Amino acid sequence: MAKVILHPLGRPAEEVLAERDYRENLARMEALNRTLFERREEVRGGWGREYVERVHAKGKLTTWERIELLKDPGTAVFPIQTFVNYGRTFGDPPRTSPAAGVITAFVRIHGRLAIVIANDNTVASGSWWPLTPEKIERAQEVGLRLKIPVIYLVDCSGLFLPEQSKTFPGKLGAGYIFKMNALLSASGVPQIAGVLGDCIAGGGYMPIISDKLFMTEQAYMVIAGAALIKGAKSQKITSLTIGGPDVHVHLSNCADERVPDDPTMMLRIRQEVALLPTPAVGYYRHAFAPADPRYPPEEINGLLPTDHRVVYDAREVIARLVDGSLFWELMPHTGEEMITGVARLNGLYVGIIINNQQMTPHPEMRARTRPGGILYREGIAKISQFSRACNSDGIPILWLQDISGFDIGLEAEKHGLLGFGSNLLYTNSTNTVPMITVLLRKASGAGYYAMTGRPYEPVVQLSTPLTRLAVMEGRTLAIGAYRTRLDDNFHILSTDPAERAQVEAGMREVEQRIEADMDPYKAAAQMDTDEIVAVHELRDYLMTLVELSYQSIGYRRVKNPRIWSLHDLAVLTEPAG
């Protein structure tokens, strides 16, 4: 009988880093966190107090007030895709669409985690903007992958028509939402919809396939609203008369039940969720209770350098994320540029893969060292086999990225990194266990792909305020763009002052543009990452995501830890003697 033995990991912060360096890191990180928290509040405010008052004047609650009533008291809400469309404007006069006009978040209801998709009724009456459909579909995808309840709070006046060409057509346009409704239903994923106001056109189709559909007294569902009907048929009629609860609860049978108001709606949805099977989380904890790390997660703010060129001890980050700061490291003596192992988060097993930033011995010339944060042959093979073993054993995988990319040059090509990299990409493309990706700092080049970046469909990808997502750094790209005008030491060849000034200005422009493109808020605005999270918040997010990975049963195999193939991998890679 094999047992999983986890070992203590980490040291007190004062032993890891000089106090001056720790304080400098902390000060820089706190400034970045302030910006993050201020921008969150900006997005959460929608179109401002005036529009909140408009909602209240109609006898309705705002979307965030509804979520507050829906969730279990005292529990946290974990939003995703907060910054979609951040910094963008649409139409004339230009209008913003905070969070693309829809809130998507993990919410705990009667002890069960659900994904809630809720139109923000303070932003153009919940209209669908460019990227709103894709954001809804992303949340539906998470629900489908994890087989967790999907709850729709619909208060949607349809497409924001001036931008309809960016939301109506295309593979992932508004119509794909309804296909996702159907796929969720076909997979047996519970869907519960509450219609709390406008529900026009596509907004009307979205809740119909749900298992339960409730309407408030002032809600309506229509293919076309009263204004359109007046124009097309010259009929003076209200949308409530066309498709209110009198019609859809009692005549068309498109809705199940009517409720008087928003608070009652939230109560009825909670009652329905309570009827679902209880979570399997306790079963899969194998009698282990969640435990705090021995070292506070807040210390990561001081231990993680904000300068991406400065190294740090990745094991100290793990020690501040996992339960009890306990970790079973596998294959520590090979591929040392990568760290792989198993820990518990929220009392549940998770496989962890993280880039080692420190210099490591060259496997063929031990007197030489190699820089960390780069994928070499041995590290690629190591994380590929570890990833496959976790998939075989049913263990969710957490990828903690801080990667500059693959090794390059003659040695890399002779070692066949293209082939080993393809092997890793195949592994992560075909894995079926939930995978979670965190971009700690650098997420560069094909290394971002290889470590389960967003194109490889992690359940959720988180960024931090430090994240730099790009093919390469701005300075490097500028050198590449102007390579023919530089010497072997990357100095400008020309001796003509005007030409030198032109090259310098061009390189500076390229570098600044690439640096701006690497901003995590830009990535989040265009849905290249799911959420920006302060590093001290990572543990809470990760505990929630790992719990979600174990909540439902019957859709994937979770092996008893005694029969993990990881035990065989550990034995086969132990050094002799």
From TrEMBL:
Residue span(s) of domain CoA carboxyltransferase C-terminal: 296-568
Listed transmembrane segments: none
Gene Ontology annotations of biological process type: L-leucine catabolic process
InterPro entries hit by this protein: AcCoA_carboxyl_beta, ClpP/crotonase-like_dom_sf, COA_CT_C, COA_CT_N, MCCB/AccD1-like
Stated name of the protein: Propionyl-CoA carboxylase
Gene Ontology molecular function: any one: methylcrotonoyl-CoA carboxylase activity
Stored PANTHER family: ACETYL, PROPIONYL, PYRUVATE, AND GLUTACONYL CARBOXYLASE-RELATED (PTHR22855), METHYLCROTONOYL-COA CARBOXYLASE BETA CHAIN, MITOCHONDRIAL (PTHR22855:SF13)
One GO cellular component, as annotated: methylcrotonoyl-CoA carboxylase complex
Domain CoA carboxyltransferase N-terminal: 25-288
